[in-house]
Amino acid sequence: MAFKTDIEIAREAKKKPIMEIGAKLGIPSEHLLPYGHDKAKVSQEFIKSLAGKPDGKLILVTAINPTPAGEGKTTTTVGLGDGLNRIGKKAVVCIREASLGPNFGMKGGAAGGGMAQVVPMEEMNLHFTGDFHAITSAHNLLSAMIDNHIYWGNELQIDERRIVWRRVMDMNDRALRDIVVNLGGVANGFPRQTGFDITVASEVMAILCLSNDLDDLQKRLGDIVVAYTREKKAIYARDIKADGAMTVLLKDAMQPNIVQTLENNPAFVHGGPFANIAHGCNSVIATKTALKLGEYVVTEAGFGADLGAEKFFDIKCRKAGLKPSAAVIVATVRAMKMNGGVAKADLGTENVEAVQKGCPNLGRHIANVKSFGVPVVVAINHFYSDTDAEVAAVKAYVAEQGAEAILCKHWANGSAGIEELANKVVSLAESGAANFAPLYPDEMPLFQKLQTIAKRIYHADDVIADKSIRDQLKTWEAAGYGHLPICVAKTQYSFTTDPTVRGAPTGHTVPVREVRLSAGAGFIVAICGEIMTMPGLPKVPSAEVIRLNDQGNVEGLF
């Protein structure tokens, strides 16, 4: 059976002018700052005018641990937004922007798929409205100003061995993980070791996504700890006098982007931290704006619920005062089979036993999300190879966990294929069953917070950390940062730190390699196992097949 590719479907979309999409939400045209005909930014002035309006209901879409079989979390997020509009609800989709790194690496795109996409697909997956470039520039301006300050006399007496601010770029490039800068003699400064992270791991990205407005943005940028003196006194970005210029570079990037789904429903696409190395949620300003404009806001959190949902609840909701009404966990029959030990090449063959064997991964995510006091429904993202018996096995397993699984065919049929899930989400959200609470209180010691996440979400026995890491956490507590939440950087493929361990393992430990203070964003990053904050390209990157065809159209994004 021949199917059109996502990019072919997107190119055939009957898009409406972005002013019409904004008008659906009551945004006057003068408050939409257009980037062409099909995308725009919403003005800060208009966003401020919404302050007194009531909020709609917030729905989180999360997933099982990702497998090579694919789960379709963004596709389901977009489809559910369309489905809610189809049944008469005023719904808005809120998703993250795509990073160039994975688009040219393994992923190939991040705008949904099939008949549940956000358009314009090519622009969203490439430079879009330039937000990531602005974040990269602001981050690296601070880097340049730190080295420049030292070059011109080092008035702040920065210890060059204790500069903690690295550089970033929005590309997967393992060669830049560890580098030496300032080589070449006196004219070029003092040589030192540093490195690059990918832009989505930048604290500036996290700050932009957690800030409420431009004033909050500048304060948070000023709070960034960039280095320490020999006496271990913290040096902040405001000490370098970089916060004002960084805010100027970010003033447009701070405004949420509005685009549309294939069914011409509104979607905010703003911010893009990864969940395996950052906090994995779209911007607070986009989510809060959408909540003022819609009855329902459907948003996603990156990768599996052990990363994205946990950070959504414990970082984003805690910081922004958000209270989700329901959560959708996306799973596929194919992924259940892979968790049950079936090779990717054999996924097309019916294997109910493997489905049942793989379901405990889904079961753990259901229990974890419920532990936050949020009602759960499972979306089975349908593939053509799924059999009735396999789907029935997933539904039966989920029923045993005290939840319901609903087969969704939005990839093939758009909103018509996800009506049942939309109705279920409405009934959950309107039932008042949600009683949201984060996993741990602000006042819990930092290492104990880390242990709580490891034991309650990953079901690990304990956290392994050198004395130097434990001492560093205590030092930050003494400096007034003990109230901050923890942002765990670890593999997305497993509850453990070993990406090859599928299912719902127990009896493992979580080794912490490094901790980083993100004082401006307002969390502590704990880097676990072998996870890298600058990814590399795979052996055969997507970039090898991305090109312009004879008609001048982009091919290879998917």
What does this structure look like?
- It is built from 19 helices and 25 strands.
- Helices cover 35% and strands 19% of the residues.
- Helix 9 runs antiparallel to helix 10 (243-250).
- With 558 residues, it is of the alpha/beta class.
- A hairpin with a 5-residue loop joins strand 24 (547-548) and strand 25 (554-555).
Provide the CATH topology of the largest domain: Rossmann fold
End-to-end Cα distance, whole Å, is 18 Å
Shape: globular
Q: Characterize the main sheet.
A: 12 strands, mixed
Question: What's the short version?
Answer:
The chain is α/β, with parallel strands linked by helices. The chain is 35% helix and 19% strand.
Please name the defining characteristics of this protein.
4-stranded mixed beta sheet, 12-stranded mixed beta sheet, Rossmann fold, 3 domains, Formyltetrahydrofolate synthetase, domain 3, Domain 2, N(10)-formyltetrahydrofolate synthetase, 25 strands, alpha/beta, single chain, 558 residues, 19 helices
